[in-house]
Design a protein that fits this description.
Helix content: 25-40%
Cofactor: FAD; FMN
Protein name: Methionine synthase reductase
Distance between the termini: 42 Å
Strand content: 15-25%
Largest sheet: 7 strands, mixed
Number of strands: 25
Organism: Polypterus senegalus
Keywords: Amino-acid biosynthesis, FAD, Flavoprotein, FMN, Methionine biosynthesis, NADP, Oxidoreductase, S-adenosyl-L-methionine
Structural class: alpha/beta
Shape: globular
EC number: 1.16.1.8
């Protein structure tokens, strides 16, 4: 650290690397503004001590699951929530916090808000207003202006602290000035966020989502991924600083063994897929598969409500297409040697830990890199330097600029474009391998809820999923399947049993030699489990594949009832929904059996596409409609009988709609206003009686 640079502590808590990447970006930019960031993960408690920290502290933290801290922040949150800490425990601490979340989830940025609130309760003071970035609309809309404002806030704080120290200013006056500065900063951030919001709203007024110019009478020129129109095409641009390169890449000799064999982490276990069944009819809108995996030879155990991370590769043809586009396909079997550039200007630079040594080029692109990741603006800024066509170079500059944020969202973020899509759209762009490796994030495992109970299926676990499809669009003309679901559907094709049909394995001595194998890791849930009190009633809301954990719940409850006939068991309500009764009513027969034997006491099903317009009878279309029709029972179960409600499925639409419907139900049935109803839900959450397993 230069003697002229002012130190601050930079902490991050990250689940999938976004908070870490943003913290590293802040650290890189710090030196340009006269600061030196000392970076640590929140889990690295041996590297920092907030009890003794006198420098400013900046915290970047994400939220995972149903408002839970990322794994790397769990101990930190638990530590600061210790009830024995006094109200001035952190009175010496001055901090700024940037929270990352997704507004598709009801507990938006909950980890960041929890840390923020608790630090305040312990006497810590903000020197800069907290920012909460929304991945649902684009993290950069808040992250970029928040980082820009951070440097002035740090300078003001350092100047104020030095002035206070030198003049021994009266504490009351100092507090008053600090509050005024805080209001000024909060006002500036609020104004900036409102400005961004107004820009975003105005840019979306055109139905196409982009701008358009009238070139001649009757002819309209519209913006596209590769073309801009006025005013953007004529604007001066504020583009991000060019990220400093930090990797040296060398291709060595060819790898002799199979270059695509996975080198699994220690926590992963290889398991055999013993069966695969299609649960939906061939004419269903989505294809749903159920897989059974044999975990009997592993130490893995689980409870209904837990999940499993499944390690999956990128599509091989997609990998080869990308390598071909980069001009290195013929070297796909060569070993890649990585080193940090000795002369890099990047302050925080290290080799990617997710790329093993002595890996082939093909292996790295198949198993290590998220090649489907939406390229961030910093990536686009780097691509500009490798683009020779002036028109293409200008367009990439626009897409990564402040002025082009609406076009970036509309043409890159919303259609979920990948680096391959961009390189196909901008043919004169020829980035080096090092640039690709520097910017592509780690390929993440995909998480699936257990759709079974280990007590009903010893040594086995079931998962259920839809085969995800991304339809063609102007920016990506070819249909694509989900990275994991597309791979799994091809992997199990030889053993797939279609709905209503039978699948016969070949007569062989050892079926495990021909059955497909995958690597999985256990991902226990902290709370999404059946109540320990079997007499407590439960309400389960799970349309589509959201029913998965509830099949495990019901299998588990059935086994409990069989083994403990004298024990009291509470009501079980299931609200399920799908499009068509005859096409995608998955687990229909099993639910019928659960009902017949009394394990499932109430089943309410809605079919969104089977509405009969010829009759006046209005049938429930979605799960929230059935909740409304059973409002009195919902209130009785939750409040008179202290029951639990579980919600599983799509966060963006279903979970939000169910949440809003419950607010209406509580308001109406309990005769309270909506604000009080929201507090009621918050109380249920706090007591772990309103639980969600949702995804976007």
């Amino acid at each position: 650290m230069s003697s002229s640079q002012t130190r601050f502590l930079l902490l991050y808590g990250s689940q999938r690397g976004q908070a870490k990447a943003i913290a590293e970006e802040i650290a890189v930019k710090a030196s340009d503004h006269g600061f030196a960031a000392e970076v640590s993960c929140l889990s690295e408690e041996e590297k920092y001590n907030l009890e003794r920290e006198r420098s400013p502290v900046v915290i970047v933290v994400s939220t995972t699951g149903d408002g839970e801290p990322p794994d790397t922040a769990i101990n930190f949150v638990k530590k600061i929530k210790t009830k024995t800490l006094c109200s001035v425990h952190f009175a010496h601490l001055h901090y700024a916090l940037l929270g990352l979340g997704d507004s598709n989830y009801s507990n938006f940025c909950n980890c960041g808000k929890t840390i923020d609130k608790r630090l305040g309760e312990l006497g810590a003071q903000q020197f800069y207003a907290s920012g909460y970035a929304d991945d649902g609309v684009g993290l950069e809309l808040v992250v970029e202006p928040w980082i820009e404002g951070l440097w002035d806030a740090l300078r003001k704080f350092v100047t104020s602290a030095m002035s206070t120290s030198q003049k021994d200013t009266n504490n009351h006056v100092g507090d008053h000035n600090a509050k005024n500065e805080m209001r000024t900063i909060e006002s500036a951030v609020t104004d900036l966020n409102l400005h961004l919001l107004s820009l975003d709203e105005s840019s979306s007024k055109d139905e196409s989502g982009g701008s358009c110019n009238i070139v001649a009478e009757g002819e309209v020129l519209e913006a596209s991924l590769t073309r801009s129109v006025s005013p953007l095409s004529e604007s001066s641009l504020n583009v991000p600083a060019l990220p400093a390169p930090f990797l040296d890449v060398e291709l060595l000799n060819e790898l002799q063994q199979d270059p695509t064999l996975l080198k699994p982490p220690e926590t992963a276990h290889q398991v055999v897929i013993t069966s695969a069944k299609q649960l939906t009819r061939e004419d269903a809108v989505k294809t749903t598969l159920l897989l059974e995996m044999d975990i009997s030879e592993t130490p893995l155990v689980y409870e209904p409500g837990d999940s499993f991370d499944l390690l999956c590769p990128n599509n091989n043809s997609e990998v080869e297409e990308l390598l071909l586009r980069l001009g290195i396909l013929e070297k796909k079997h060569h070993i890649v040697k990585l080193q940090v550039k000795p002369d890099t200007k990047r302050k925080v630079s290290r080799l990617p830990l997710y790329i093993p040594e002595h890996s082939s080029l093909q292996y790295i692109f198949m198993w290590c890199l998220e090649i489907r990741a939406i390229p961030k603006k910093a990536f686009l800024r780097s691509l500009v330097e490798y683009t020779t066509n002036e028109h293409e170079k200008r367009r990439l500059q626009e897409l990564c600029s402040k002025q082009g944020f609406a076009d970036y969202n509309h043409f890159i973020r919303n259609p979920s474009l990948s680096i391959l899509d961009l390189l196909c759209a901008f043919p004169s762009c020829m980035p080096t391998l090092s640039v690709i490796l520097e910017h592509l994030p780690k390929l993440q495992p995909r998480s699936y809820s257990a759709a079974s109970s280990i007590y009903s299926n010893p040594g086995r676990v079931h998962i259920v999923f839809n085969i995800v499809e991304f339809p063609p669009c102007p920016e990506r003309p070819a249909l694509r399947k989900g990275v994991c679901t597309g791979w799994l559907s091809n992997l199990v094709l030889p053993i797939l049993q279609h709905s209503g049909g039978q699948m016969m394995l070949p007569e062989i001595q050892d079926a495990s030699n021909v059955l497909p194998k995958v690597y999985i890791c256990s991902r226990p849930s902290s709370a999404f489990h059946l109540p320990s009190d079997t007499a407590a009633p439960i309400i389960m809301v799970g349309p589509g594949t959201g029913i998965s954990p509830f099949i495990g719940f019901l299998q588990h409850r059935k086994k409990q009832r069989e083994e403990h006939p004298d024990v009291s068991f509470g009501e079980t309500w299931l609200f399920f929904g799908c499009r068509h009764k005859d096409r995608d009513f998955i687990f229909r027969d099993e639910l019928g059996r659960f009902q017949a034997e009394g394990t499932l006491t109430h089943l309410r099903v809605s079919f969104s596409r089977d509405q009969d317009d010829s009759t006046e009878e209005v049938k429930p279309k979605y799960v929230q409609d059935n909740l409304r029709l059973n409002a009195q029972d919902v209130v009785r179960v939750l409040f008179k009988e202290n029951g639990y409600i579980y919600i599983c499925g799509d966060a963006k639409n279903m979970a939000k709609n169910v949440h809003e419907e419950l607010i209406d139900i509580f308001s109406r049935e309990l005769q309270i206003d909506k604000l009080e109803a929201m507090k009621v839900i918050a109380d249920l959450r706090e007591k772990k009686r309103y639980l969600q397993d949702i995804w976007s």
